[in-house]
Amino acid sequence: MKDVPVMNIHDANVTALDLLAGLESGFALSVLDSSPDCIKILDLQGRLLFMNRNGMCAMEIAQFAEVADRPWPSLWPAKSHALLEGAVEAAIRGEVRSFEAFCPTARGNPRWWHVTSAPVRGARGVERIIVTSRDITELVQARTSLEEEVAAKNEALRRQKLLLSEIDHRVKNSFAAVMGLLRMQARRHRGDPSGQALTDAATRIATLARVHDQLHLDPSAPDLVLCDYIGALAGDLGQALNARVEMGQLPDLPIRVNATQAAGIGQLVAELIGNAIKHSGGRRRARVLVDIEPLAEGLSIAVQDNGPGLPEGFDPAAQDGLGMQICLTYVEQMQGRLEHGRSDLGGARFRAIIRPEPLAAH
Fold it and tell me: Choosing a second label site near 21 at 20 to 30 A (CA), which of 94, 103, 150, 353?
C-alpha cells in the first residue's frame, strides 16, 4: 500500500492562498453572504459600513442604503444602546464581547439576537469591527415558555402545600374532637363493658393521630426512613401510655418506604405496642422492645413485653378483640404473617413478617 503524503497546516494555507490569488475580496464577500447570520462591519466610530445579504433579510432591510453610515446602536431600542456602545469600545481595545438582546426588525417584527462583536486587525492595529448577530427568537421563546411553565408548577405546588397544611390542621382538629367525645362518653359509662370499649376506641383514635403527626413532619418528602418513623412513633406511644418503649435490633442500612405503606406499618406497630402495654399487667411499669430486621422474604418487625405472657393455646385468629383483628388485617394486606410466642423479657412476643413494596435500602 502506497504512503499517502500528509499536508501540514502551513502547506494547506499556502495552497489556499495560491488558489485565491487575486480572488480574496470576492471570496470573503461570498463567505459573508453565505452565512445565515446577520454580519456587519463597523468603523471605529461604530457606524455601519457593510451588512451581508442574509443579514438584511433577517433584519427585513430592503437596501443597505437605508442603514449605511448609521451608528449601529441606532438600529436597536434605546435601552440597549449602552450595551452596544460598550461592545464597540471593547472591540477597539481588542476584546471580544457576546450577549443576548432584543431588537425588532426594520418592519417591527420582534426578534431576539445572540450578538458577538470582535476586532478586525490590520497593519495599524484594530481597523474595523465585525459584529455577528444570530436570530435566537425561537430559543428565547421556548426558554420563556419553559420558565413560565416552571413558575406555574411552582405556584401550583405552593398552593398544594398550603392546602395540605390546611387539611392537616383540620384532620388534627377532627381527631381531637372525636377523642374528646369518646372519652366523655367513656366517663359516663365507667365500670361497664361499653365504657371500656369507648376508652379503647379513644386510644385507637389517639394512635391514628400520632401516626398522622409522624407522617406529616416533612410533607414534601416522597418517602421516609422506616426505623426513624417507628422510633418516633414508639416514643410517642410510650410517653402517652406511661410505658417504657425502646427500639432494639435495627438494620445496618436505612430502609425507606412511601407514606402509604408507612401509615399501615405504623398502625400495625401501634396496635402491637398498645396491646403489649394493655396486657402487661402487674404493678411494675410496662416495658416494650421493638426489633426491626430485613429478611430475604421481606421485613420482620417484632414487639415483645415484660408482661405475664400469652395463655396456653393462644390463637390470634380466634381472638375477638378489635386490636388483634386490626393487626391481622394489616399483615394480610402486606402479604405477610403474624407469629407469636414468649419473649426474652418474660412476656409475650409478636412478630410480623411483611412485604412492603417498594422496599429499598440506601
Answer: 94
